[in-house]
Structure formats: C-alpha cells, structure tokens
C-alpha cells in the first residue's frame, strides 16, 4: 500500500513512516545537487537567506535533462546521494525534512535524520522518464548558471519513492540485506 504525503511535510506523518514504506508525494519539492548544496551552505555560513523556504521541505537530488517540446521536464532520475552528505546535516538542522536520492548515506547524515525527525527516500534509478511523468510543473528558482544543477521548484503529483532511512534511523539497505542473509 502506498502512503500519500503532501508538502509541506507534516512532522507527525514523518514519524509514522517506516523503512520500506512506499510513498507518493504531491505538492512542491525542490531540486538540488552538490554544486547547489555548496552554494546554499555558503549562504547559511554568511547568515544570508536561502533562495527558497526549506522549512518542512523536500529536496530531490536530481539534475534533469532538458525538456522536449510540450513536456514540463526531461528525464528526472535521482543522483547518488553521498555527494550531498557534507551539506545535508546543516540543512536538516534548519528545517529540511525529506531528501530524495539513491544510495547509502553516512553516519553524520543518519544522526541528523534521527535528531531532526527527518527521512531519506529512495527514488528508482533507471526510471527517470517514468518519474518525470509525476512532475506537473518546473521552474528555476536559483543558480540558473548551474544548468541542469540549478535549483528548481517542482510541483509533483504522486511522485513515487521508498523510505530508505526513517526518522528513527532504521535503514532499508541494512534491513534488506539482513533479511536476505537470514533467508539463506
């Protein structure tokens, strides 16, 4: 069963999510990869405002391809999340609740997830064209000079993802591996 989530994120519904849950997100999410994350942290370190409100927000680690005529966005598959690990804890500490990407996260990120009652969701790599179908609007809000890595505001409807690390730190990658090894 898919759990429907609407942005901005409600802290109570985040606490109910468990590693392995399938979710469908609707509402506003923002895109950012490592170059944009670096710029966001530089702003925070200078006590300047971010170009968007991150409070109870969602960041999707993606650099979409250019859109074809008549399309809102091009392929929009997740990028590997570990490149955002140096920046994610500081963003969670100021209100980020959901990160979407692919791959493992380091201990500092997992600690920040638990401390901030946030979650890390996995989007399916290789399903970029399918994921793009859940994006109903896209506009660049910051760092246009970064091209595909510019920060975009996306309006999504039933964006599919899986809870990889829940707010208690339970990790689907570890649970799945353990369940598999115990089944042998």
From TrEMBL:
<dbReference type="GO" id="GO:0016836">
    <property type="term" value="F:hydro-lyase activity"/>
</dbReference>
<comment type="similarity">
    <text>Belongs to the class-I fumarase family.</text>
</comment>
<dbReference type="Pfam" id="PF05683">
    <property type="entry name" value="Fumerase_C"/>
</dbReference>
<dbReference type="InterPro" id="IPR036660">
    <property type="entry name" value="Fe-S_hydroAse_TtdB_cat_sf"/>
</dbReference>
<dbReference type="InterPro" id="IPR004647">
    <property type="entry name" value="Fe-S_hydro-lyase_TtdB-typ_cat"/>
</dbReference>
<protein>
    <submittedName>
        <fullName>Fumarate hydratase subunit beta</fullName>
    </submittedName>
</protein>
<keyword id="KW-0456">Lyase</keyword>
<feature type="domain" description="Fe-S hydro-lyase tartrate dehydratase beta-type catalytic">
    <location>
        <begin position="3"/>
        <end position="174"/>
    </location>
</feature>
